[in-house]
Each structure stands twice: as structure tokens, then as C-alpha cells.
Design brief:
This protein has 237 residues and is α+β, with helices and mostly antiparallel strands. It is built from nine helices and five strands.
């Protein structure tokens, strides 16, 4: 039985993690009295002792997977409470953060009156791909950071995917993004005339047109979808 690292965050996000990691390693579960937890063999060092650094790194990867898989997901945090396989608990104090959110739920689609078999959770497969592919690991590390994504972050993800498939033309050719959206994304990420001080560059020639504008909120969703589409296209060995 592996160590458990207890989690905190908005219930919507914690439920998303349970859906993504309800089977396999890493796994996320819920205890009716204690709350939500992350469990994995990766939480311990070579002496089978808890490794808090490994817990932080694993949660960042888990958050990155969820950010790619769910457009509304926001990263959760470690509570600073860890439970050993023998049931003993150690605690490290972290600050608490509360937030109000609302969420829409999709209904179940029935086929001939019967719900179709539930597909396996995506989370463990994404985690295995990150172990196999440095590009996947890098994207999940960027997406898994605790702070909101900025233009530097989303552009890193774009560069990794673009490089992995052989250029922006390949991204478009595979139907993962339109040429117009790719151009709006790169222009908005780079041009201070569009994104001001948040842009990646301080000076660029030319005045951008309105048709080349993409808001940061749109870019966030766009890059998450692209990252998930690319990761889904990869084989698991």
C-alpha cells in the first residue's frame, strides 16, 4: 500500500483528478472523512521514506495532466499531510486558500437505453507518456505550475508541440489548429502592440490588425486543447 499525500483545492478540481486518476499509478481518491489524496509509489525515496520533493514534482505533473485534459481545471495543492502505509500521519503546515466556483455537468448519453462502458482514465496513461517522452514531461511541468498561465508559458507549450511534429505547418496539416488561429496566437504572444507588457517581446515592427488578436484567456484554452490533442496522438509503450 503506497503513501498518501493529502490534497486541497476546489472540490470541482479535486473531482476532476479523481476521474482522471481513479485507477493506476498515480492515483487520486477520496476518503469520506478525510478528503482527497494522491497516492503513488513515486512518493518515496530509495529507502521507502516519504520524499516531499517527489510529492511536489508528482503533483505538478498531475496538475499539468488535468490542465491539458479539462479546460476548466485549476491546479490543486498539497495539504502538507502525508499518511504512511501503516496508517501513521505526518503533517507540514501550508497556507490555505478558498475560492468560489460554479460548474456545469454533462449528462450521460445512453445507447439503446444503456450507458456505454466507461473508458479508462486518462491520467495514468499521460503519466506513463511523460516517463517515456521528455517533451510530454516538459509540457506537463509548464501546465502544472500553480499560477495562472501567461504568454511565456503558453508559448513554451506551443514551441514544444511545434518542434515535436516538425513545425507549425504540420500542426495545421494534422487538423489540430487552423493557420489563422496559429498566427493569432503567435502574434498575440509576441507583439507588445497586442498584449502590452505581458507580451514576450518589448519591440516589434508593424502595427497588428484586430484580426490578429487573441486574448490570454482564449490562448490558455487553445494551448490546453492543442497539448491534449498532441499527447493523445502518441503511442504508449
Amino acid at each position: 500500500m503506497p503513501w498518501k499525500a493529502w490534497l486541497e483545492g476546489h472540490e470541482f478540481d479535486l473531482e476532476t483528478l479523481v476521474d482522471l486518476f481513479k485507477a493506476g499509478d498515480p492515483g487520486v481518491g477520496q476518503d469520506s472523512s478525510e478528503g482527497y489524496f494522491l497516492e503513488s509509489s513515486a512518493l518515496v525515496d530509495s529507502s521507502d521514506q516519504l520524499d516531499q520533493g517527489a510529492a511536489q514534482a508528482l503533483l505538478r505533473r498531475v496538475n499539468g495532466i488535468a490542465r491539458a485534459a479539462d479546460q476548466s481545471f485549476r491546479p490543486v495543492r498539497l495539504r502538507g499531510r502525508y499518511t504512511a502505509p501503516d496508517g501513521t500521519t505526518s503533517v507540514v503546515i501550508f497556507a490555505d486558500v478558498a475560492e468560489g466556483r460554479s460548474r456545469a455537468f454533462a449528462g450521460t448519453v445512453l445507447i439503446n437505453g444503456v450507458a456505454p462502458p466507461e473508458p479508462p482514465p486518462k491520467g495514468p496513461r499521460y503519466a506513463r507518456l511523460a516517463d517515456q517522452d521528455a517533451d510530454v514531461a516538459d509540457i506537463l511541468r509548464v501546465l502544472g505550475q500553480p499560477d495562472p498561465l501567461d504568454w511565456y508559458d503558453v508559448y513554451k507549450v506551443w514551441e514544444i508541440v511545434e518542434h515535436a511534429v516538425g513545425g507549425a505547418k504540420q500542426v495545421v496539416a494534422r487538423g489540430w489548429a487552423s493557420k489563422a488561429d496559429a498566427e493569432r496566437f503567435t502574434a498575440s504572444a509576441n507583439h507588445p502592440g497586442i498584449s502590452g507588457d505581458e507580451a514576450r517581446h518589448a519591440r516589434m515592427k508593424g502595427a497588428p490588425g484586430a484580426d490578429r488578436t487573441m486574448l490570454m484567456s482564449e490562448a490558455d484554452s487553445w494551448i490546453r486543447r492543442l497539448a491534449a490533442t498532441w499527447i493523445e496522438s502518441l503511442p504508449t509503450y
